[in-house]
Design brief:
Blueprint lengths: L11 E4 L5 H15 L1 H15 L1 H21 L13 E3 H14 L3 H11 L5 H21 L1 H9 L6
Antiparallel strand pairs: 1-2
Helix pairs in contact: 1-2, 1-4, 1-6, 1-7, 2-3, 3-6, 4-5, 4-6, 5-6, 6-7
Length: about 160
């Protein structure tokens, strides 16, 4: 687990396997993007494979921008569990719900959640990127629903 025991953002609040596809994918790609440069490339490759080189490249660019904005303007670092961990951390849950709210058109709710993650002045652009990324993840799920579900459920180790 990436969180120190005293940081509540890393506290387990559930399991990734119990999440819906969009939310589970958000957590998986958050973890992968933060894991390593190789994992970041794997995220880009997934977007390109599922959405094609043009749309997938644009979606991957949006995901990169979302993550970079998050790392540069977060109120505090987002705590996350290891890529293969079954647990769902509190920060990861908030992030996944934020992406889902943005992607499903609940813009006001997404903006509110964005202010929990990033500075208030960055919330509008963060929310717009989340909407774009969330819609791309929804399209990926439609393109390959079994593959996305398999990836979200695959982790077999804890922390």
């Amino acid at each position: 687990m990436s969180a120190a025991p005293h940081n509540r953002g890393g506290a387990p609040v559930g399991q990734v396997a119990h999440m819906e596809g969009l939310e589970a994918a958000s957590v998986l790609y958050l973890r992968l993007w933060c894991d390593s440069a190789g994992s970041r490339q794997a995220v880009r490759d997934d977007f390109a494979q599922a959405l094609g080189p043009d749309h997938g490249g644009a979606a991957a660019d949006a995901w990169d921008a979302l993550m970079e904005l998050c790392t540069e303007h977060c109120r505090r670092p987002l705590m996350r569990h290891a890529v293969t961990c079954r647990c769902l951390g509190a920060d990861e849950s908030c992030f996944a719900n934020f992406i889902a709210a943005a992607a499903t058109g609940a813009r006001e709710d997404a903006m509110l959640m964005a202010t929990l993650i990033v500075r208030a002045d960055m919330a509008p652009v963060f929310t717009s990127l989340a909407c774009e990324c969330g819609l791309a993840l929804k399209c990926m799920a439609l393109a390959a629903p079994r593959d996305m579900a398999r990836r979200a459920a695959a982790p077999a180790t804890l922390h």
